[in-house]
């Protein structure tokens, strides 16, 4: 089965002398650089927490009724059975593997190919000795394998076992007697048998790790807004320190429509990755599309009434007339105000100079009304809100918290007298801070999803805002 499977996967590999990009991200996708230490931990954890070792032992004990003797692999006329070279020692029988020590994992990334994976373990065997009584042996064994990194038909990164060999180390007799002439026979037998028994363990390890790699793809929900789909844009690449994945980030509405925005005019310059760290670069494009999805769904619109603001924030016609008395003095006094804020164009996110800002254009309709009456339009403003974004990473998301930096407005139309709308900016800013910004932060609770690669946790990552991207770096 294994050669057939490798043949199929080999058709999907397009390996040449490709090397990871030299600091420039040409695509607009999310760039993930996963340190070799993370891959090593994933392999070690698959051995610790999973049933891989027990499965190997189960295969040995259920299929092989001992490696040596009349019922063993070489019994019944074989090397040690009747008719064999050592027929006289038929009593040496039932030699079985009873314990595999948890292997120590070492790996080396091979640029342009994949991974060199080594597992060092100890094997304990027991059976009946030639002179009767229990015979216990221990052997050190090194499993060396060459693993290719590729992409399967679904576009998922995958590790594929290309070559596996076993090197037998020191053999010691723990209990019982083993004549010297039989010691070499046992050694030769183990050299032939162990690769067939232990190389499937490597294949089992890779299946577990491939399940983790497979989580890169798929839909990440954004609540009622829609989802983000992560897909591989190109074949995975390896350097001598990390695996690089260029991941497309496709934002979709709840109806399944793709929310698309213009791409950056030039490539993103990705900073150098330090050794023993993993890195993910989140492009500006993903921020803009998330805000575009919020705008399309109407999540950025709000009607502000006195019930939504503290009492110390004025929101009546009398208060409004005090700001521009020459134009608004004739308004009916003490009527409540309704501010209908609508965002008809997508916000713009800026990432540069170690700062993240969001610019939201808005139409603000100011109306007066009585609780039992119909609102009456007073005037309309065209405004632009500039907000500072505080970015905080968690295990799988990049969270945003906004605060208002400034608000500028111009008079668009008026049912009363014309006036200089900039005189209302301070008042409007206080209203927006207490009524609108909290709503924005609730809507933004969905966060910016991060690709899930080998369970790398970016909660403690160092965050760096560069031009048109955010880089998260976490120690392995």
UniProtKB/TrEMBL annotation:
Domain Lipid-binding serum glycoprotein C-terminal: start-end pairs: 274-474
Function: May have the capacity to recognize and bind specific classes of odorants. May act as a carrier molecule, transporting odorants across the mucus layer to access receptor sites. May serve as a primary defense mechanism by recognizing and removing potentially harmful odorants or pathogenic microorganisms from the mucosa or clearing excess odorant from mucus to enable new odorant stimuli to be received.
Family as reported in the entry's similarity comment: Belongs to the BPI/LBP/Plunc superfamily. BPI/LBP family.
The protein's name in its UniProt record: BPI fold-containing family B member 3
Domain Lipid-binding serum glycoprotein N-terminal: 33-275
InterPro entries according to UniProt: Bactericidal_perm-incr_a/b_dom, BPI_fold-BPI/LBP, Lipid-bd_serum_glycop_C, Lipid-bd_serum_glycop_N
Pfam families xrefs: LBP_BPI_CETP, LBP_BPI_CETP_C
Molecular functions per Gene Ontology: lipid binding
Record carries keyword Glycoprotein: yes
Cleavable signal peptide: 1-23
Cellular localization per UniProt: Secreted
Keyword vocabulary terms for this entry: Disulfide bond, Glycoprotein, Secreted, Signal
GO CC term, one of those recorded: cytoplasm
Keyword Signal set for record: yes
């Amino acid at each position: 089965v294994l050669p057939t499977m490798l043949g199929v996967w080999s058709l999907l590999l397009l390996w040449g002398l490709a090397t990871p990009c030299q600091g420039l991200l040409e695509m607009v996708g999310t760039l993930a650089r996963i340190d070799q230490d993370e891959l090593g931990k994933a392999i070690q954890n698959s051995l610790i927490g999973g049933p891989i070792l027990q499965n190997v032992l189960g295969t040995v004990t259920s299929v092989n009724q001992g490696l040596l003797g009349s019922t063993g692999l070489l019994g019944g006329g074989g090397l040690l059975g009747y008719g064999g070279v050592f027929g006289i020692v038929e009593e040496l029988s039932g030699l079985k593997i009873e314990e595999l020590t948890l292997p120590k994992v070492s790996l080396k990334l091979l640029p342009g190919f994949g991974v060199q994976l080594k597992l060092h373990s100890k094997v304990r065997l027991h059976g009946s000795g030639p002179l009767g009584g229990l015979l216990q042996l221990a052997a050190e064994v090194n499993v060396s394998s060459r693993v290719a990194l590729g992409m399967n038909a679904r576009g998922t990164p995958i590790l594929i076992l290309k070559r596996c060999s076993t090197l037998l180390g020191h053999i010691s007799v723990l209990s019982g007697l083993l004549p010297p002439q039989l010691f070499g026979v046992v050694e030769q037998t183990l050299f032939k048998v162990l690769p067939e028994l232990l190389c499937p363990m490597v294949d089992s390890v890779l299946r577990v790790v491939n399940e983790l790699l497979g989580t890169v793809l798929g839909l990440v929900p954004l609540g009622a807004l829609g989802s983000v789909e992560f897909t591989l844009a190109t074949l995975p690449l390896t350097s001598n320190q990390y695996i690089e994945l260029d991941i497309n980030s496709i934002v979709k509405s709840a109806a399944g429509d793709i929310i698309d925005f213009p791409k950056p005019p030039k490539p993103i310059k990705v900073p150098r990755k330090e050794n023993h760290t993993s890195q993910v670069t989140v492009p500006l494009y993903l921020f803009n599309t998330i805000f575009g999805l919020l705008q399309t769904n109407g999540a950025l619109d709000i009607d502000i009434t006195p019930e939504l603001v503290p009492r110390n924030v004025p929101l009546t016609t009398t208060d409004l007339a005090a700001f521009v008395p020459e134009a608004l003095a004739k308004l009916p006094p003490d009527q409540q105000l309704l501010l209908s804020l609508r965002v008809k164009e997508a916000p713009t996110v800026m990432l540069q100079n170690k700062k993240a800002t969001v610019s939201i254009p808005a139409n603000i309709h100011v109306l007066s009304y009585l609780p039992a009456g119909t609102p009456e339009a007073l005037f309309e403003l065209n405004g632009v809100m500039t907000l500072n974004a505080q970015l905080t990473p968690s295990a799988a998301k990049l969270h945003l918290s906004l605060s208002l930096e400034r608000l500028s407005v111009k008079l668009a139309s008026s049912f009363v007298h014309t006036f200089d709308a900039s005189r209302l900016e301070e008042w409007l800013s206080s209203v927006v801070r207490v009524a609108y910004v909290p709503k924005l932060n609730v809507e933004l609770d969905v966060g910016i999803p991060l690709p899930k690669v080998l369970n790398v946790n970016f909660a403690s990552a160092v965050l760096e805002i560069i031009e048109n991207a955010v880089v998260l770096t976490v120690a392995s």
